[in-house]
Amino acid sequence: MPDLDKELRARRDSGRKLLIPYLMGGMTDDWPQTLAAVVAAGADAVEVGIPFSDPIIDGPVIQEAGLRSLTRGTVPQEVLDGIAGAESPVPVAVMTYYNIVFRAGHKRMARSLAAAGVSGAIIPDLPIEEIDPWAAEADGAGIATVLLVAPSSPPDRVERICARARGFVYAVARMAVTGERGDLGNDLTKVVERIRNCTDMPICVGIGVSTPAQAAEVCEVADGVVVGSALVRRLLEGEGPDGAAAFVGSLRDAIS
After folding, report:
1. Could you tell me if 229 and 58 are in contact, meaning their C-beta atoms sit under 8 angstroms apart?
2. Theoretical Cys-Cys bridge with 116: which of 15, 67, 84, 130, CB 3.0 to 4.6 Å?
3. pTM (2 decimals)?
4. 3-state secondary structure at position 151
5. How far is CA 69 from CA 28, 31, 75, 200, in A?
6. Which domains does the chain have, with CATH numbers?
7. Known active-site residue 47
8. What whole-number distance in Å separates Cα of residue 144 and Cα of residue 135?
9. Between the CA of residue 226 and those of 9, 101, 232, what are the distances in Å?
10. Catalytic-role residue among 7, 47, 217, 223
11. Is 5 a catalytic residue?
């Protein structure tokens, strides 16, 4: 499996801005083909959601995608099997919630991710104070635990998060659930600067980034961008792998 930290650092250090699209695993039969399509369109890594029934950080679009996936009977191992079958040449990080990790068991979950070729994990409801048991198993399995920094995070907490983060630091653009927004709000520059003062890891901004123009604006201050709801909405509307590739290609053109 590609090393998330090494791959993103190398691309950033070469002058490339990082693009990480988000997909919901299992929402359609062809979602692994969509994963391959967004990679071909210029993604530097891909975030794949494992659906959960109480997705506290997700807005209506991602919630709908998760519900559609669950209604289709998707279970975590099916998502991992889809990732493994896609054989992505760029790192894949799964995003899910701690109940799923706890139910599987830390060691079993970490080893299952590694066996599927997953490079990282994002578990937004697992706080830094309680992360050590999971993070130890993840480190041992070669899984990078990506951590989030919110605009509300005080400096001492940002230091702790950055010290424990692996792969990249996920900068939350605004205090909100995921979803498309007409603007990026007023916190973007401050949260990126706060992270930059603590680490040289790649910093990628997500939550609310919806358009190529917004992605370009983010990349003026950050190393990269995570785009979820705007892509998932297109998939919910039936655009499929070709539509996903076209949208991700427009994001790549904008940030390049």
Report:
1. no
2. 84
3. 0.95
4. coil
5. 7, 10, 9, 36
6. 17-255 (3.20.20.70)
7. yes
8. 8
9. 16, 23, 12
10. 47
11. no
